[in-house]
Amino acid sequence: MKHNYKFVVAILSVLLSTRALAEENCTTLQMGFNPDQNATTVLSNTPTLVKYLEKNMQGVAIKVFVAKDYAALVEGMRKGQVDFGWFSPVSYVDAAQNAGAQVLLKSVRGSKPVYWSALVVRKEGGIKKLEELRGKTIAWIDPKSAAGYAYPKALLLSKGIDPDTFFAKQTFAGDHGSAVLALLNGEVDVVATFADNTQGNSGSWTQLLRPEQAALVTPLLYSKPISGDPLAVREGFAEACPEVTQKLTKAILGMRYFAESKNLLKNLYRTEYMVPALDSDYDVVREVQRLVYPK
Prior knowledge:
By secondary structure, the protein is an alpha/beta fold. The chain folds into 2 domains: 167 residues, D-Maltodextrin-Binding Protein, domain 2, CATH 3.40.190.10; 112 residues, D-Maltodextrin-Binding Protein, domain 2 (3-Layer(aba) Sandwich). Helix content is 43%, strand content 21%. It has a 6-stranded mixed β-sheet, sandwiched between helices. The radius of gyration is 21 Å and the shape is globular. It starts with a helix and ends with a helix.
């Protein structure tokens, strides 16, 4: 009787799993976006991207969800409200652990699938050394931003600096555009933001400010390289709708080769193009998380 009971339970488990897969709607997918550089910019550029993807995935409709913050995107996938998510590296690691996210692609900025965090200051402030930031004010981006919080905080901790006692005040700007504007306007003394290289000529300040404004600020310090921002799929959707998942992945990989699509990701997230990614690419992010978000 005991063996029969286990057999019945196993059969029911398979049936319930099959039913769950069958309930997935493979003709409509929910695509979630993080606010990243500026929520308004993301909102204004998603329609063109969605139109292109729907054209290349005939018969599949895409609905858009722009998260209010990085954590909301993870929660949306956990609840089954987001099938594909454009994550930060840190929020992807959270989504992989808590929401069944499976990475598909990662972003390339410049020519490499990595980027950096930079601590950026105003030139007129005369700050040349990290120690000169003691007692100053800093704007981070979001608690789950890689370039805007996790990596720069890890950098400071590695130098024996505790941000809670080092800075007079810490704030969260919400997106990179707001952060560099706050710096420019003198609302804070330093911001943690993204950089495409470590030469000082490409980052949020050069891309989100006007040239004459960007000339007024300068990077002070850079973090270690950060794995490119990932696109991930919800595990349940990938299992139920493998063809749709493959079509979407192929469509995004091919965007760099066509005139109508090669600038869509640059307009959206300042990304040149996407390349295949592995979950192990984000093991370095997990190491940073253990330092910055101790349990």
